[in-house]
Amino acid sequence: MAGGPDNYVPELHKWKACDKWIGVDRGVFTLLEQGIIPDEAFGDFDSINEEQLKAIQDRLQDLHVYPSEKDATDLELAVEWAVSKKPAYIRVFGATGGRIDHTFGAIQLLYKSLQENVKVELIDKQNSIQLFSPGTHEIEVRTQAKYVSFVPYAGGVENLTLTGFKYPLTNHYVELGSTLCISNELLAQRGTFSFTTGILMMIRSNDADCL
Hints:
It is an enzyme of class 2 (transferase). By secondary structure, the chain is α/β, with parallel strands linked by helices. The chain has helices spanning 26-33, 50-59, 74-84, 100-115; strands spanning 22-24, 40-43, 64-65, 89-93, 119-123, 127-132, 135-140, 147-163, 169-174, 190-195, 197-205.
């Protein structure tokens, strides 16, 4: 849980089955407000006031505290720690909707995690973002995320094939900068997408704030 704007954070009680919660800077206080005590806490805690910091210190004994001036964001330090534990999946909340540079920085962390073969998903009320390496991937419908978009990341994507979608593709080259695969939709409960080279970003969205 990063420290992004509260109005972009989904109802976290829907995700309380997560094995381990990690708070990042102001995100630690956000978790406590929603009745979740994080297992780990990271940050320089420069985005909260003294009262909020005291509330955190009263509830948590071990904090990973870093100086404000450093070569990595608080979120990067937390994600790197989480990736080092080799989990099956990491969900990141509170990383979008505020400063756009922080949002792009969070997307960069998706790429670094992909290199370590750890799946990471950025999630807010309206969107989720993931990166994928070449191969065949299955996707299931989400009733609260109608639209599925695919965007090339760091170069073109070769032989993109979409099955089970409203707008299918077969072995199509999608160049960097293309909007060809924006706002697709699944026709059934499951679909697949595959490609042979490149990195593909998948964004799942809905018109309403309901993810």
